[in-house]
Every structure is written in structure tokens, then in C-alpha cells.
Design a protein that fits this description.
With 383 residues, chain A is α/β, with parallel strands linked by helices. In chain A, strands 1, 2, 3, 4, 5, 6, 7, 8, 9 and 10 form a ten-stranded mixed beta sheet that branches. In chain A, helix 2 links the parallel strand 1 and strand 2. The chains are: A alpha/beta (383), B mainly alpha (582). Chain A: It comes from Halomonas cerina.
Chain lengths: 383, 582
């Protein structure tokens, strides 16, 4: 108890120091910031963030939050840092990109002591998930890329395993997949029955990549999507019967727009979603303040009540309850729930940080080659 | 027997026995930690040294990678060669040495050779040599058990049990397969089953298993998700695969031993040979990287239909076999089991593809062929059909797969045993002069020296002595026969009192003993084993065999009775160890 008391006193002291510290240019630390610009992913995700994080932050600090739309990637950030004109203060970034960006020196370092302790005093280092703290990034949520399918597409049966994504005999119809090697390669290799623990070791061999691409090539009619809101739309319009996508978007389509879809949790690929501060952010102090606020236990739980992403803090995970509007039990919809996580794959972001550029090239070449011989292939088929 | 002391005696035995079980668990714990540390260290080395595919993929500099591919195994070979110079026999110790120690009841595995062998295996595996990790782990566990027994001044039977405990724990940890660990210790090391040994070994294996769960948080070696059942006629094919697999296993063993023999003739310093093998391995790996290291990825791909083309399978199989023979034959430290797993699985996959081509339908039972090939090759190599089956069972958790493997091992083990020998270890021991093919009692008699039963209570006469004096000496000593020595101390022959008397009647007292037609008996030399001495006894009638020292000087005799007694005592000890339960 005494130790906890001291720790609390320490936090209090640190908070005071933060308040007294002289403000940096353009950021006087008292909320007199024109606006904090957050780069985030739009759609249902942004709506949930607005309610759970941005509005309460403005209410508490008086700092208005402006949101810019982000579709992933580092090209824009690289350019902005090079031109020394970074328009954003905080970026909501996947961990793999955060790692790469940190390596390139595009991000400010972040201390693990930045987030507040849990309400019971547990320090962030133990309250957060393992490896939630990177050099420049703090994980706030776990999201998953999953497959969703139209409930009405396969009368009499339902996909139960990730291999069914590639089984167009039993589950006929067009698919929508993200135009990226990540996740697609994992699923393709899983469909051969390899254990998820071996995925990245096997994908590291030319043979593994070849097998995975061969599986992807066996699919007929694939829509390659890029923006996260495309797959729910394609499903809703009935243009595809199965699609990969972020679990939160699918939930939103299911619950708020009553699209007749179901999530296949088997083989879900979990990723960390992090907060980062770009190097040269106009308001770095306000940005730190925002991250501390947004990674607080209650805020994380509040976010998970609105969009089904797994909170990165243990203290927040146990506080996830029902959706404030529709009353759904959100625990059943978050990827980290034990029922959903049984055969989850954790994305090997260290691996991706080193290989993504080459994989992207490899994948692009493959896509180009795949598109080119499509006519001759039909000719072959008819032989 | 005094009945009143029996309960006390029983309690004391019980306490001793329980003590042994607890000791087994402790040895199991330490052996398991060592094994887990070893496995983790090998994985880490493979990451740092750009051997594992994952690290190779993440390292984006083609030229440097190619350079490392050749340099790392070469330098690793150099290090292994240098380490072996610290071992008296100038070679790494392995399971064969464990088996020899237990089967000849000499126990005592030296700590220095044990730790240096483990270190050289770590370096070899870490730098990508095509060798296995289970042999070194078995030897490491066994050395630990032996050292504990030595520190506690245990007898030979207990020593054998503690060795088996170390072995069982190492296997239980490395494979995460406790049953296989227990059976391996019995099937390969002890080669008999006794309740007295079972309990401590089981305790060691369980502790190893628990530590494996906690310390080695990793997936099974080959986790297989398969629910299809093979068609009935496929079981017949599995049996045939077993028979063919025995031949592959034979080729593998022959290749390893053959390279070792050829390597001895190479005009290269022995400690430089592994480096040479490493360089060669690295160069071939630039072309076919599948042959580097233990080959877990290759193992996995071989269970997937379509991952390899038929010709590719054959190529990788042959190259892996050659690479392993090269590495082990040229003196890298490491085992033979993991490469055998890979070779066997590739062989099974090849069979599966051939069957698929003949049948012409997609093979949903492909993994069965791969596993059957794996068992068919590994079981004969290590001489352990039951262990191999249990490894399949514990690692796949599939009963159907295990029965398929059973079908395959039925033919594999006996055919290989008939054609080549019980296991690679037994063949290695036979080449070193220890033949275990006739069982443990024979081996023991082979190992025990007849000189140990040398008696000086005999009559040795100079060959020029007069008959009368000779008879006098002999009667005074109350002996029936005398052994004659020439001027330089060498053995000339033996005479009986009856023959001396008969000659004296003909030739008179002063005639020399040499005038008698001497009976020249075979002699016992310092190297003669009890088994050989028993053979010598067949060729003559008499009380004793003359014994000579290393210089050929007659030093005494070994009585027929003491040889018989030694034999009986040996059998008695064995019977107690193998059938005793307390």
C-alpha cells in the first residue's frame, strides 16, 4: 500500500511538473492551442473515437481536435517531415508502420511512463499488454483483420475455417481482399494446414511465398480493396460474398446498418494500433497530453464499448460492457475475447518492418502478372 | 532367513527407492533446464548467424547473405574442430557412448568430454551444420545423471538409472513428449525393463515435460491437423513404405560411416575437417538452402502436397542425406536424428507423390505418407521403433496417424536390423570393438577382463629344471599341474603331475622337464575378455589358463573356476538389476 501511495505521489508530482513546465512555441500547455490535429482512419472508427476520446478531451482541456483522414502508409509522412511541414500532432498508426517510421526517424520517442496508471494504481508497464510500448509508439487497441461473409450466400452451410475463404467449390462467389501481401499471405498458407506458430518462418522461404501466392491465384474473381470502408460496402451491395476487412468495420455494418453478414474469427490476424507523434509536430506537448488522456483506462473501455477493438490495458478490458446505443455485449465482438481468439494469428510486425517493401514489390509484380495472363488462362481452361 | 528383520529391511529399501525417485525428478529438472537452454540457444544463434529462414528473409543484402552462408558454417566447423581437441578421443561423444557406458555397466560418463561435446554441438547446430540436436541433448542429460551418481558414490545399477533419468528428461523436454522420453531411455539406453528403474525415469520425464511447457513456449515439432482416414488398402502401402524406408535408413547410416572412414584418409588435419565440410555445405546451400541446419521448414513443407515437385523432392532428399553424412562424417558435433526426420519425411512425401500419380486423384492423405516415411527412416537409425511411434503420437495427437506409422515401422525396423544392425549407435560401437548384437550379458563378458581374476597361487617352473625337483616342488605346493617358463620368462607349456611321474619312471630323476611332450595351452593376455577366456577353455582340459603380461612374461594363471564364477556373478547382478523391483 505504502509503495502504491508513493507511486501515486510521484505521478502527482510529475503532473505538476508537466503543468509548470514552460510552454513550447505554439503550445502553452494550458489548452491555448488553436487545434490538435489527429490523423485517423475515418468511418465508424473515427465516429467512435470522436465520442469516446476527442469530445471528452476537448471538454477536459479546452483543446479542440481536428481530424484528418488516413489510409495507412508512410509516404505522406515522409514527405511532410522532409519538407518540415508536418500538419499533424498525433497519428493513429498500425504498429508495423510505427516501427518502420520510428526506424526512419519520422517519429518522436515516447516514454512508457506517459500513460496514466490504472485506477487501482497499477503502473502502466504491468497494466498494458506485453510489448505494448515501442520506442516511438504506445499500443492502445488490438484490432483484427477477419473474413466476413454474407449470411444468405451459402444456404445450408457456413464457413468455419479460414481455408473456406479459398474453397470456391463449397462456398462459391466473388471475394474481396486487401491489396497488400499482409494477411493474405498468412491466410493462404494457413489454408494448407500449417500451424500458426510456423507461419512467418515458412513465409520466409521462397517455397512458402510460392505456395501462398499459388493459393491466392486459385481464387477466381477477387476485388482488391484499399480503403477500410470498402469491404463492408461490397458485402452490403452483394458484389462479393466473402471479404477481408477490419473487425470493427464489419461490426459497424452488422449492427448499425444491419447488413446480413457474419464474422469468421478463425485465422483472424491481430495487430496493435498505436498512438505516435510525428517528428516536427506543431503541438508536441498537447499531443503527449492527448495520448495520456486517450490511453487512460476509462477512455480505452469507453472506446471499446463503441467499436469492438481489444483495449491494450488489462484494467480496461475488464470494464468493457455494452454498447451505449444498441445495448450489445461488446465483449463478444472484440478480437481478444477468448472465444474469438482461439486460433488467432498475431501479426509478426518485426518481420514485416524488415520485409514489407520487398513483399509489396513481389506482390505487385504477382498481381500484374496475374492480371495479364487472365485471358490466356481461360483459353487454357477450355482446352 | 531371519523373519523378524524383514519389515525393517523392507522399510529401508522403500526409503532408498523413494529417494531414488526424488533424485530422478531432480536430475530430470536440471537436465530439462539444460536441454531447454540448449534449444533456445540454438534458435538464437540461428537467428543471429543468418541460418534460420526468418533471419535470412529479414536480412536484405544479397551479397553479404551469400558470404555469411559460406562463412558461418566454415567458422562453426573450425570452432567445433578446435573444441574436439580437448576431448581425449578427439571426437564428440554421443548416444553411442551413453549406450556403451550403460550396457557394459562401466557407467561414468566423463564431465569434460560431456560438456565439450555439448558445446561443440551447440556451435555446430548454431552455425547451420546439417546435424541433429537430440543426440547431444541425450548425451548431456546422461552425463549429468552419471556425474550425480559419481558425486553420491552410487553403485553401477543406480548409476545406470540416473543416466537413464537424464536421457528421459532431455527427450521429454526437447520433444515435449514425456512418454517417448521414458520409452527411449528403456528401449535405447537401458535395453531392459525393470520397475526399479521405471519410477525414477518416469519422474524425470514428467519434470522435463512440465519444464518444457513453461520454458519452451513453442509449437509442436509437427503439429498436424488432419481428420481424414486413409483407405484400407493404403495401410498395405504404409507397410511397403516401411520396408523401403529401411533401405533409406541403411543408406543414411552407411553414408555417415563411409564418409567418416574416407575422412580419416584425407590429407587434412583432423581438427580442420569440420571447417572443410562447413565450407562445402555453405557453397551447396547457396543453391539449395533447405539443407542448412536442422531443417524444420523443410520438414513442414514435406508434409504439404504440392510444396515440392517430384524431382525437387528427390534432389533435396539426396542433398540432405549427403550434407548430413558430410557434416557428421567430417567431425561436426551433433546428432543424427533430426536430419533423419527430414530425410524420412521427404522420402515419405516422395512415396505419396508417386502413389498420387498412379491413383490420379488429389491426395488428402498425403501427410500420412510423409509421417510413415519419417518413422520408417528414423526408427531404424536410432533403433527405437516404439519411441518413434510415441513421438508421432505425442507430437501429432492423432491416433490414426500413429496406427499408420505402426504399419510402416513393422517392416522397417526388422529389415534394417537384419541388413545393417540394430541402430547407427550399435554399428558405431561395433566398429569400436563393442558388439551389442548378442545382448547385454555378452557385452558385459566382452568388456570384463580375464586378468582381473589372475591368481599367483600356481606353480611356475623353469623349463630346464630336473624332473625329480619339479615333482618335489609340485607335491609340496599341492598342485596337480605346473607351467613352464623359458629363460626369458615366456610361457613354454604346461605339464601335469601324472605326466611328470610317468616320465621320471622312464628317464630318471635327473632328466630335464623339457624332455616331456609339453601341452601348450592358449594364454590369457591383459586384453583378453572373459568371453574370450571362456572360448579358450573349450580347447583343452586342465585347471587353469596361463596368464602373461603385456611383454609376454608368464605372471600367473586364471582358474577355470574363477572364470565360471565371474560369469555366474555377472549374470546374477544383471538378473537382480533387470528383475529386481526394490
Amino acid at each position: 500500500m505504502a509503495e502504491r501511495g508513493w507511486r501515486r505521489a510521484g505521478w502527482l508530482l510529475m503532473g505538476l511538473v508537466a503543468l509548470v513546465t514552460p510552454p513550447v512555441a505554439g503550445d502553452d500547455g494550458n489548452g491555448n492551442v488553436d487545434a490538435l490535429t489527429v490523423l485517423s482512419w475515418g468511418g465508424a472508427y473515427e465516429r467512435a473515437q470522436r465520442e469516446a476520446l476527442f469530445r471528452p478531451f476537448t471538454a477536459t482541456t479546452g483543446i479542440p481536435v481536428a481530424v484528418a483522414r488516413y489510409d495507412g502508409g508512410l509516404t505522406a509522412l515522409r514527405q511532410a517531415v522532409a519538407d518540415d511541414e508536418v500538419p499533424w500532432d498525433v497519428i493513429d498508426m498500425t504498429r508495423s508502420e510505427a516501427m518502420a517510421a520510428c526506424e526512419e526517424g519520422l517519429l518522436e520517442p515516447l516514454s512508457p511512463s506517459l500513460p496514466a496508471p490504472a485506477p487501482d494504481g497499477t503502473p502502466p508497464e504491468t497494466d498494458f499488454l506485453d510489448d505494448a510500448f515501442g520506442r516511438c509508439a504506445i499500443t492502445h487497441s488490438i484490432f483484427a483483420t477477419v473474413v466476413a461473409y454474407r449470411r444468405d450466400a451459402f444456404p445450408g452451410q457456413r464457413p468455419t475455417a479460414i481455408g473456406d475463404l479459398f474453397d470456391q467449390q463449397r462456398f462459391p462467389g466473388p471475394r474481396a481482399l486487401q491489396r497488400t501481401p499482409a494477411v493474405n499471405l498468412e491466410w493462404a498458407l494457413l489454408s494448407y494446414g500449417v500451424p500458426r506458430e510456423e507461419l512467418y518462418r515458412l513465409l520466409s522461404t521462397p517455397r512458402g511465398l510460392r505456395l501462398a501466392l499459388a493459393r491466392l491465384a486459385s481464387l477466381e474473381e477477387v476485388h482488391w480493396w484499399e480503403a477500410g470502408d470498402t469491404p463492408p460496402r461490397l458485402l452490403a451491395e452483394g458484389r462479393v460474398v466473402m471479404a477481408s476487412g477490419y473487425n470493427g468495420r464489419f461490426f459497424d455494418a452488422m449492427v448499425n446498418r444491419e447488413v446480413p453478414i457474419e464474422i469468421l474469427w478463425d485465422g483472424q490476424v491481430q495487430e496493435h494500433e498505436t498512438w505516435v507523434i510525428p517528428r516536427g509536430s506543431p503541438h508536441p506537448e498537447a499531443a503527449r497530453r492527448f495520448i495520456r488522456f486517450a490511453t487512460d483506462t476509462e477512455r480505452l473501455a469507453e472506446l471499446a464499448r463503441r467499436i469492438p477493438y481489444g483495449p491494450a490495458r488489462h484494467s480496461a478490458a475488464v470494464r468493457v460492457t455494452t454498447h451505449p446505443d444498441n445495448g450489445r455485449d461488446m465483449r463478444l465482438h472484440i478480437p481478444t475475447h477468448p472465444l474469438n481468439a482461439q486460433r488467432a494469428v498475431t501479426k509478426d510486425e518485426v518481420w514485416y518492418a524488415e520485409t514489407l517493401t520487398r513483399l509489396n514489390e513481389y506482390f505487385r509484380d504477382w498481381l500484374a502478372r496475374r492480371r495479364a495472363p487472365q485471358v490466356p488462362r481461360k483459353v487454357l481452361d477450355s482446352e | 532367513m531371519d523373519t523378524s528383520s524383514a519389515p525393517f529391511h523392507g522399510t529401508r529399501m522403500m526409503v532408498r527407492f523413494l529417494g531414488l525417485v526424488v533424485l530422478g525428478a531432480v536430475i530430470g529438472g536440471v537436465a530439462a533446464l539444460l536441454a531447454a537452454g540448449f534449444v533456445i540457444a540454438v534458435l538464437a544463434l540461428n537467428e543471429w548467424l543468418l541460418i534460420s529462414p526468418r533471419s535470412r528473409m529479414m536480412f536484405d543484402h544479397g551479397t553479404l547473405l551469400a558470404l555469411a552462408t559460406v562463412a558461418v558454417p566454415t567458422i562453426g566447423g573450425l570452432a567445433a574442430g578446435l573444441l574436439h581437441r580437448g576431448i581425449p578421443e578427439r571426437r564428440p561423444h554421443g548416444p553411442a557412448d551413453v549406450i556403451a557406458a550403460v550396457q557394459t555397466r562401466r557407467g561414468r560418463l566423463p564431465a569434460r568430454a560431456g560438456s565439450l561435446s555439448a558445446l561443440s554441438a551447440l556451435v555446430s547446430l548454431g552455425s547451420g551444420a546439417s546435424v541433429g540436436q537430440y543426440g547431444p541433448l541425450v548425451h548431456l542429460g546422461a552425463t549429468l545423471g552419471s556425474q550425480v551418481a559419481r558425486r553420491l558414490h552410487f553403485g553401477r545399477s543406480e548409476d545406470n538409472i540416473t543416466i537413464a533419468c537424464g536421457v528421459a528428461a532431455a527427450i521429454a523436454t526437447a520433444f515435449n513428449a514425456p512418454l517417448a522420453g521414458i520409452v527411449f531411455a528403456h528401449e535405447v539406453v537401458l535395453r531392459h525393463y525393470a520397475l526399479r528403474a521405471f519410477a525414477p525415469i518416469a519422474a524425470a520425464a514428467i519434470v522435463g515435460h512440465v519444464i518444457a511447457i513453461v520454458a519452451l513456449d513453442r509449437g509442436a515439432l509437427f503439429h498436424v491437423t488432419n481428420t481424414v482416414l486413409p483407405r484400407p488398402w493404403e495401410f498395405a502401402l504404409f507397410v511397403v513404405i516401411g520396408g523401403l524406408g529401411a533401405l533409406v535408413a541403411g543408406a543414411y547410416t552407411r553414408a555417415i560411416l563411409g564418409v567418416a572412414r574416407q575422412a580419416a584418409r584425407l590429407p587434412v588435419l583432423p581438427w580442420l575437417r569440420p571447417a572443410l565440410a562447413g565450407a562445402l555445405l555453405g557453397l551447396v546451400a547457396l543453391w539449395v538452402p533447405d539443407i542448412l541446419g536442422m531443417g524444420q521448414e523443410t520438414l513442414r513443407f514435406a508434409t504439404i502436397d504440392g510444396a515440392y515437385g517430384t524431382r525437387e523432392l528427390l534432389l533435396v532428399l539426396l542433398l540432405k542425406l549427403a550434407a548430413t553424412a558430410l557434416c557428421i562424417g567430417m567431425g561436426f558435433g551433433g546428432g543424427v536424428f533430426s536430419p533423419a526426420l527430414v530425410i524420412g519425411t521427404l522420402f515419405g512425401a516422395l512415396c505419396g507423390q508417386v502413389v498420387g500419380a498412379v491413383v490420379g486423384t488429389p491426395m488428402d492423405t498425403f501427410v500420412f505418407y510423409a509421417v510413415c516415411g519419417m518413422v520408417a527412416v528414423t526408427a531404424p537409425v536410432i533403433g527405437a521403433p516404439l519411441t518413434s511411434l510415441l513421438i508421432v503420437f505425442e507430437l501429432t495427437g492423432s491416433y490414426t496417424l500413429t496406427t499408420a506409422a505402426l504399419a510402416s515401422v513393422t517392416l522397417a525396423s526388422p529389415i534394417a536390423a537384419q541388413l545393417f544392425g540394430r541402430s547407427l549407435f550399435d554399428i558405431q560401437l561395433r566398429e569400436r570393438g563393442l558388439d551389442l548384437s548378442a545382448g547385454r550379458s555378452q557385452a558385459l563378458l566382452q568388456e570384463a577382463r580375464a586378468h582381473a581374476h589372475l591368481s599367483r597361487d600356481c606353480v611356475i617352473l623353469a623349463s630346464r629344471m630336473a624332473l625329480g625337483e619339479a615333482i618335489h616342488v609340485l607335491t609340496r605346493a599341492r598342485h596337480g599341474e605346473a607351467h613352464l617358463q623359458d629363460a626369458r620368462g615366456g610361457y613354454r607349456g604346461s605339464v601335469t603331475l601324472a605326466a611328470l611321474e610317468a616320465t621320471r619312471e622312464r628317464e630318471g630323476n635327473q632328466a630335464s622337464v623339457e624332455t616331456i611332450d609339453l601341452e601348450v595351452r592358449p594364454v590369457v593376455r591383459p586384453t583378453t575378455s572373459i568371453l574370450e577366456a571362456m572360448d579358450l577353455l573349450r580347447d583343452f582340459t586342465g585347471e587353469a589358463i596361463p596368464a602373461v603380461d603385456a611383454n609376454g612374461h608368464l605372471v600367473g594363471v586364471v582358474y577355470e573356476a574363477s572364470i565360471a564364477r565371474a560369469y555366474l556373478q555377472q549374470s546374477d547382478e544383471l538378473r537382480q538389476e533387470e528383475h529386481g523391483h526394490g
